[in-house]
C-alpha cells in the first residue's frame, strides 16, 4: 500500500472514529448462556477477548459483565454496537460499546485546588485515558493552575439569583466541547435537579466525608464535633439528592483528638484526591456499572 493510501486510511480511521480496541459493558437478568452468547459473537468475528469480568448480583437476579477485546481491522464502535443489538435483544441487555478514544472531561472547581492538581498530574502522566477539555469555576482562584497546564479556564460566577443562567452557560460549554464526563473537583455549589437529570451517569463529585456520614456542607466540622477517629472521602455520581448518588470509590485516613477541623481538612485532601482520581480513571475505562443505587466496579 502506498504512503498516500496509508495516510488516507489513517485519516479514514481518524474521521470515522474507527478503532481496534473496545470495551463491552452489559447488564441483564441472570440466565444461562450470557457469556457464551457474548463470546460466540466476538469469536465468530475473529475478535480477541483481552479481559472479561462479571458480577452475579444474586439478590437482584442481575448479571453485570465487562469484556475488553480487540479486532483484527479498525471498525466503527457505532457499527459494532448496532451489530451487537441482536445479542442484547436475545438477553434483554442494557449495554454500551466504547472504543479507545479518550473520555472528554469538563472539570468544575471552586477554591480548593488539590483534586484538580491531582487530576492534571495523572492526565499529564497518561493515566486517565481522558482529554481535559476545560476547567469551569465560580471563582478565579484556580485559573493559573488550569492555564499553566494548557487547559482553558472559564469563570462562571454563580449566585442564588443567577443560578439558572450559570447552569445554562455550563450546558452550552458541555455541548460546545463535546463533553462526556463532568467532574466536580471540590465544586461547592449544589446543581439543580434539572441539571443533575441531564447529567445522570455523566457527573462525578468528590464529597469530603466517608458517606453516608456527614452529608452536606462543612463535613470536617461535623466530623470534629462528633470526635471521629477516621475521616474519609467519597467519589460518587451526582444526583438531585445531595451526596446520595451511587458511590464509586472511598478512601479513609486515621485521625485523633488533636485534629481541629482545619487539620482534618488538610489531612483529608489526600483521601479526596485519591478517591476522585481513581473514580474518574475507572469511569474513563468503562469499569463502573450502575446497579440501582449502587455501582459495580470492575477494577
Ligand atoms: N445536586 C447535587 N449537587 C452537588 C452535589 C450533589 O451530590 N448533588 N455534591 C456537591 C458537593 N458538596 C459536597 O460534596 C456540597 C457542596 C456545597 C454544599 C452547600 O450546601 N453549599 C452552600 C450552598 C450552595 C448552593 O446553594 O448552591 C452552602 O455552603 O450553604 C453542600 C455539599 C456539589 N453539588
Automatic annotation (TrEMBL):
Annotated GO MF terms: formyltetrahydrofolate deformylase activity
Catalytic activity, EC: 3.5.1.10
Pathway(s) of this molecule: Purine metabolism; IMP biosynthesis via de novo pathway; formate from 10-formyl-5,6,7,8-tetrahydrofolate: step 1/1
Record's catalysed reaction(s): (6R)-10-formyltetrahydrofolate + H2O = (6S)-5,6,7,8-tetrahydrofolate + formate + H(+)
Enzyme class, broadest EC rank: hydrolase
The ACT domain, residue ranges: 23-102
Superkingdom of the organism of origin: Bacteria
The UniProt record lists the keyword Hydrolase: yes
Coiled coil: none
Chain's role: Catalyzes the hydrolysis of 10-formyltetrahydrofolate (formyl-FH4) to formate and tetrahydrofolate (FH4).
Name of protein: Formyltetrahydrofolate deformylase
Gene it is expressed from: purU_2
